[in-house]
Protein backbone atom coordinates (compact mmCIF):
# COMPACT_ATOMS: atom_id res chain seq x y z
CA UNK A 1 0.00 0.00 0.00
CA UNK A 2 1.33 3.44 -0.94
CA UNK A 3 0.84 6.10 1.74
CA UNK A 4 2.09 9.67 1.71
CA UNK A 5 0.87 12.10 4.35
CA UNK A 6 1.69 15.04 6.56
CA UNK A 7 0.37 16.23 9.93
CA UNK A 8 0.42 19.65 11.55
CA UNK A 9 3.00 19.58 14.37
CA UNK A 10 3.39 15.82 13.65
CA UNK A 11 0.21 15.11 15.62
CA UNK A 12 -2.28 12.46 14.48
CA UNK A 13 -4.94 13.72 16.91
CA UNK A 14 -7.86 15.63 15.38
CA UNK A 15 -8.49 19.06 16.83
CA UNK A 16 -10.80 22.08 16.70
CA UNK A 17 -9.18 25.50 16.48
CA UNK A 18 -10.93 28.81 15.81
CA UNK A 19 -7.89 31.05 16.24
CA UNK A 20 -7.63 31.47 12.44
CA UNK A 21 -10.18 31.42 9.60
CA UNK A 22 -8.88 28.18 8.05
CA UNK A 23 -6.36 25.68 9.40
CA UNK A 24 -5.21 22.48 7.69
CA UNK A 25 -4.59 19.73 10.23
CA UNK A 26 -3.44 16.89 7.99
CA UNK A 27 -3.35 15.78 4.38
CA UNK A 28 -2.43 12.61 2.54
CA UNK A 29 -3.04 9.99 -0.10
CA UNK A 30 -3.61 6.21 -0.21
CA UNK A 31 -3.20 3.78 -3.06
CA UNK A 32 -3.77 0.06 -2.54
CA UNK A 33 -1.07 -2.10 -4.15
CA UNK A 34 -1.14 -5.43 -2.26
CA UNK A 35 -3.45 -5.02 0.74
CA UNK A 36 -6.91 -6.51 -0.04
CA UNK A 37 -8.78 -3.66 1.65
CA UNK A 38 -8.43 -0.58 3.83
CA UNK A 39 -11.43 0.10 6.10
CA UNK A 40 -12.15 3.23 8.17
CA UNK A 41 -14.73 3.23 10.94
CA UNK A 42 -15.29 6.25 13.19
CA UNK A 43 -18.71 5.86 14.85
CA UNK A 44 -18.60 9.36 16.34
CA UNK A 45 -16.74 10.96 13.47
CA UNK A 46 -14.05 13.55 14.08
CA UNK A 47 -14.15 17.03 15.58
CA UNK A 48 -12.78 18.61 12.41
CA UNK A 49 -13.88 18.55 8.75
CA UNK A 50 -12.67 15.98 6.26
CA UNK A 51 -12.66 16.23 2.46
CA UNK A 52 -11.76 13.15 0.37
CA UNK A 53 -11.11 13.01 -3.38
CA UNK A 54 -11.48 9.74 -5.29
CA UNK A 55 -8.81 10.15 -7.96
CA UNK A 56 -9.03 6.65 -9.44
CA UNK A 57 -11.10 3.51 -9.10
CA UNK A 58 -13.94 3.66 -6.60
CA UNK A 59 -14.65 3.53 -2.88
CA UNK A 60 -17.46 2.17 -0.72
CA UNK A 61 -19.07 4.63 1.71
CA UNK A 62 -21.72 3.93 4.33
CA UNK A 63 -23.47 7.24 5.01
CA UNK A 64 -26.32 5.23 6.48
CA UNK A 65 -25.86 2.02 8.41
CA UNK A 66 -25.39 -1.02 6.13
CA UNK A 67 -26.22 1.03 3.00
CA UNK A 68 -23.28 0.73 0.60
CA UNK A 69 -22.83 3.82 -1.60
CA UNK A 70 -20.21 3.37 -4.33
CA UNK A 71 -18.35 6.60 -5.06
CA UNK A 72 -16.36 6.55 -8.28
CA UNK A 73 -13.36 8.57 -9.49
CA UNK A 74 -14.17 12.22 -10.06
CA UNK A 75 -16.10 12.75 -6.83
CA UNK A 76 -15.32 14.45 -3.53
CA UNK A 77 -16.82 13.37 -0.21
CA UNK A 78 -17.27 15.91 2.59
CA UNK A 79 -17.61 14.93 6.24
CA UNK A 80 -18.59 17.53 8.79
CA UNK A 81 -17.63 17.42 12.48
CA UNK A 82 -19.19 14.61 14.51
CA UNK A 83 -20.62 12.84 11.45
CA UNK A 84 -20.23 9.07 11.50
CA UNK A 85 -17.48 7.97 9.10
CA UNK A 86 -17.41 4.51 7.60
CA UNK A 87 -15.80 3.68 4.28
CA UNK A 88 -13.72 0.92 2.67
CA UNK A 89 -11.20 0.81 -0.18
CA UNK A 90 -10.71 -2.54 -1.95
CA UNK A 91 -7.67 -3.67 -3.93
CA UNK A 92 -9.76 -4.88 -6.88
CA UNK A 93 -11.29 -1.40 -7.22
CA UNK A 94 -7.83 0.11 -7.84
CA UNK A 95 -8.67 2.93 -5.46
CA UNK A 96 -6.54 6.05 -5.25
CA UNK A 97 -7.76 8.65 -2.79
CA UNK A 98 -6.55 11.99 -1.41
CA UNK A 99 -7.76 13.51 1.85
CA UNK A 100 -7.45 16.65 3.94
CA UNK A 101 -8.65 17.48 7.46
CA UNK A 102 -9.29 21.09 8.36
CA UNK A 103 -10.80 23.40 10.97
CA UNK A 104 -11.07 27.15 11.65
CA UNK A 105 -13.42 29.96 12.58
CA UNK A 106 -14.65 30.59 9.02
CA UNK A 107 -15.01 27.05 7.66
CA UNK A 108 -18.82 27.07 7.53
CA UNK A 109 -18.86 30.44 5.79
CA UNK A 110 -16.15 29.44 3.28
CA UNK A 111 -17.97 26.25 2.35
CA UNK A 112 -21.18 28.21 1.89
CA UNK A 113 -19.46 30.88 -0.23
CA UNK A 114 -18.06 28.21 -2.53
CA UNK A 115 -21.43 26.47 -2.84
CA UNK A 116 -20.63 23.24 -1.06
CA UNK A 117 -23.85 21.34 -0.31
CA UNK A 118 -25.41 22.13 3.06
CA UNK A 119 -26.59 18.52 3.28
CA UNK A 120 -25.30 15.27 1.86
CA UNK A 121 -21.73 14.26 1.25
CA UNK A 122 -20.92 13.70 -2.44
CA UNK A 123 -19.71 16.47 -4.76
CA UNK A 124 -19.24 15.58 -8.42
CA UNK A 125 -16.47 17.49 -10.15
CA UNK A 126 -14.91 15.03 -12.56
CA UNK A 127 -11.29 13.93 -12.43
CA UNK A 128 -8.49 16.44 -12.94
CA UNK A 129 -4.72 16.37 -12.37
CA UNK A 130 -5.14 19.84 -10.85
CA UNK A 131 -6.73 18.31 -7.76
CA UNK A 132 -3.84 15.91 -7.26
CA UNK A 133 -1.31 18.70 -7.71
CA UNK A 134 -2.93 20.76 -4.96
CA UNK A 135 -3.07 17.79 -2.60
CA UNK A 136 0.59 16.94 -3.29
CA UNK A 137 1.56 20.56 -2.64
CA UNK A 138 -0.21 20.45 0.73
CA UNK A 139 1.44 17.15 1.65
CA UNK A 140 4.87 18.52 0.79
CA UNK A 141 4.31 21.72 2.78
CA UNK A 142 3.34 19.69 5.84
CA UNK A 143 6.40 17.48 5.50
CA UNK A 144 8.96 20.24 4.91
CA UNK A 145 7.55 22.75 7.45
CA UNK A 146 9.21 25.75 5.82
CA UNK A 147 8.53 29.26 7.22
CA UNK A 148 4.86 30.29 6.93
CA UNK A 149 3.86 26.83 5.69
CA UNK A 150 0.59 27.03 7.65
CA UNK A 151 -0.44 30.02 5.51
CA UNK A 152 0.53 28.20 2.33
CA UNK A 153 -1.62 25.25 3.44
CA UNK A 154 -4.65 27.49 3.92
CA UNK A 155 -4.11 29.11 0.51
CA UNK A 156 -3.83 25.73 -1.21
CA UNK A 157 -7.03 24.53 0.46
CA UNK A 158 -8.82 27.70 -0.66
CA UNK A 159 -7.59 27.01 -4.22
CA UNK A 160 -9.11 23.56 -3.90
CA UNK A 161 -12.44 25.02 -2.77
CA UNK A 162 -12.47 27.41 -5.74
CA UNK A 163 -11.60 24.68 -8.23
CA UNK A 164 -14.30 22.39 -6.85
CA UNK A 165 -16.88 25.19 -7.12
CA UNK A 166 -15.86 25.99 -10.70
CA UNK A 167 -15.80 22.44 -12.03
CA UNK A 168 -18.93 21.25 -10.25
CA UNK A 169 -20.91 24.18 -11.68
CA UNK A 170 -19.54 23.53 -15.17
CA UNK A 171 -20.41 19.85 -14.92
CA UNK A 172 -24.06 20.77 -14.46
CA UNK A 173 -24.21 22.07 -18.01
CA UNK A 174 -22.84 18.84 -19.52
CA UNK A 175 -25.42 16.35 -20.68
CA UNK A 176 -25.55 12.94 -19.04
CA UNK A 177 -24.09 11.16 -22.08
CA UNK A 178 -20.98 13.37 -22.13
CA UNK A 179 -20.63 13.06 -18.36
CA UNK A 180 -20.74 9.26 -18.53
CA UNK A 181 -18.33 8.98 -21.45
CA UNK A 182 -15.69 11.31 -20.05
CA UNK A 183 -15.86 9.64 -16.66
CA UNK A 184 -15.45 6.25 -18.37
CA UNK A 185 -12.46 7.59 -20.32
CA UNK A 186 -10.79 9.01 -17.20
CA UNK A 187 -11.17 5.69 -15.40
CA UNK A 188 -9.87 3.80 -18.45
CA UNK A 189 -6.81 6.06 -18.69
CA UNK A 190 -6.10 5.59 -14.98
CA UNK A 191 -6.15 1.81 -15.40
CA UNK A 192 -4.25 1.65 -18.73
CA UNK A 193 -1.97 4.69 -18.56
CA UNK A 194 1.19 2.60 -19.15
CA UNK A 195 -0.16 1.15 -22.40
CA UNK A 196 0.04 2.68 -25.88
CA UNK A 197 -3.27 4.57 -26.03
CA UNK A 198 -4.33 6.05 -29.35
CA UNK A 199 -6.87 8.80 -28.65
CA UNK A 200 -8.55 8.57 -32.06
CA UNK A 201 -8.92 4.80 -31.75
CA UNK A 202 -10.27 5.10 -28.22
CA UNK A 203 -12.85 7.68 -29.31
CA UNK A 204 -13.89 5.49 -32.25
CA UNK A 205 -14.27 2.48 -29.95
CA UNK A 206 -16.84 4.49 -27.98
CA UNK A 207 -18.61 5.74 -31.15
CA UNK A 208 -17.41 9.30 -30.65
CA UNK A 209 -15.60 11.63 -33.04
CA UNK A 210 -12.07 12.52 -31.96
CA UNK A 211 -12.79 16.27 -31.93
CA UNK A 212 -15.98 15.85 -29.85
CA UNK A 213 -14.18 13.62 -27.37
CA UNK A 214 -11.17 15.92 -26.93
CA UNK A 215 -13.37 19.01 -26.61
CA UNK A 216 -15.60 17.47 -23.95
CA UNK A 217 -12.73 15.79 -22.13
CA UNK A 218 -11.00 19.16 -21.82
CA UNK A 219 -14.23 20.79 -20.62
CA UNK A 220 -14.61 18.10 -17.97
CA UNK A 221 -10.98 17.74 -16.78
CA UNK A 222 -9.38 21.07 -17.80
CA UNK A 223 -6.75 19.24 -19.82
CA UNK A 224 -6.43 17.19 -23.01
CA UNK A 225 -6.56 13.37 -22.97
CA UNK A 226 -2.84 13.13 -23.82
CA UNK A 227 -1.84 15.55 -21.06
CA UNK A 228 -4.12 13.71 -18.64
CA UNK A 229 -2.36 10.42 -19.41
CA UNK A 230 1.02 12.14 -19.15
CA UNK A 231 0.19 13.53 -15.72
CA UNK A 232 -0.75 10.06 -14.48
CA UNK A 233 2.48 8.58 -15.83
CA UNK A 234 4.62 11.29 -14.24
CA UNK A 235 2.78 11.06 -10.90
CA UNK A 236 3.31 7.31 -10.77
CA UNK A 237 6.95 7.70 -11.79
CA UNK A 238 7.38 10.18 -8.94
CA UNK A 239 5.91 7.66 -6.52
CA UNK A 240 8.29 4.94 -7.76
CA UNK A 241 11.29 7.25 -7.50
CA UNK A 242 10.32 8.18 -3.95
CA UNK A 243 9.46 4.72 -2.65
CA UNK A 244 11.32 2.03 -4.61
CA UNK A 245 14.86 1.19 -5.69
CA UNK A 246 13.96 0.53 -9.32
CA UNK A 247 16.42 2.10 -11.75
CA UNK A 248 15.37 4.80 -14.23
CA UNK A 249 15.00 2.34 -17.12
CA UNK A 250 12.70 0.11 -15.06
CA UNK A 251 10.61 3.07 -13.88
CA UNK A 252 10.31 4.38 -17.44
CA UNK A 253 9.00 0.98 -18.60
CA UNK A 254 6.51 0.76 -15.71
CA UNK A 255 5.25 4.26 -16.54
CA UNK A 256 4.79 3.31 -20.20
CA UNK A 257 7.98 4.46 -21.95
CA UNK A 258 10.34 2.11 -23.82
CA UNK A 259 12.95 4.83 -24.23
CA UNK A 260 14.38 5.94 -20.84
CA UNK A 261 16.04 9.03 -22.37
CA UNK A 262 12.74 10.23 -23.79
CA UNK A 263 11.10 9.52 -20.44
CA UNK A 264 13.79 11.54 -18.63
CA UNK A 265 13.28 14.53 -20.94
CA UNK A 266 9.52 14.43 -20.40
CA UNK A 267 9.94 14.04 -16.66
CA UNK A 268 12.24 17.06 -16.41
CA UNK A 269 9.92 19.13 -18.57
CA UNK A 270 7.00 18.34 -16.26
CA UNK A 271 8.74 18.56 -12.87
CA UNK A 272 11.76 20.78 -13.47
CA UNK A 273 14.07 17.97 -12.30
CA UNK A 274 15.59 14.94 -13.95
CA UNK A 275 14.48 11.57 -12.51
CA UNK A 276 17.82 11.15 -10.72
CA UNK A 277 17.64 14.69 -9.28
CA UNK A 278 14.06 14.11 -8.16
CA UNK A 279 15.04 10.83 -6.46
CA UNK A 280 17.96 12.48 -4.69
CA UNK A 281 15.65 15.14 -3.24
CA UNK A 282 12.68 12.91 -2.38
CA UNK A 283 13.79 9.30 -1.88
CA UNK A 284 12.71 7.87 1.47
CA UNK A 285 15.39 5.19 1.65
Overview features:
single chain; 285 residues; alpha+beta; 6-stranded antiparallel sheet; 4-stranded antiparallel sheet; globular
Verbal overview:
By secondary structure, the protein is of the alpha+beta class. The chain contains 10 helices and 10 strands. It has helices at residues 107-113, 129-144, 149-171, 176-192, 199-205, 210-221, 225-243, 248-255, 260-271, 275-282; strands at 2-7, 23-31, 37-42, 49-56, 58-64, 67-72, 75-79, 85-90, 96-103, 122-124. Helix 2 (129-144) packs antiparallel against helix 3 (149-171). The relative contact order is 0.12.
Secondary structure layout plus pairing:
Elements: E1 2-7, E2 23-31, E3 37-42, E4 49-56, E5 58-64, E6 67-72, E7 75-79, E8 85-90, E9 96-103, H1 107-113, E10 122-124, H2 129-144, H3 149-171, H4 176-192, H5 199-205, H6 210-221, H7 225-243, H8 248-255, H9 260-271, H10 275-282
Antiparallel strand pairs: 1-2, 2-9, 3-8, 4-7, 4-9, 5-6, 5-8, 7-10
Amino acid sequence: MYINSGYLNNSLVDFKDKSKPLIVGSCGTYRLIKHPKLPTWRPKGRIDYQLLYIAAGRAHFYFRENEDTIVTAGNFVLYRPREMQRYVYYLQDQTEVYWVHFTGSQVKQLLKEHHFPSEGHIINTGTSPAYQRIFRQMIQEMQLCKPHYEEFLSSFLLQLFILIERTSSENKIMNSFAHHEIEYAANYFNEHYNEDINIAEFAASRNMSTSWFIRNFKLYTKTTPLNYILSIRIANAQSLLENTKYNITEIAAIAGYDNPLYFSRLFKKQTGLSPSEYRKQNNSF
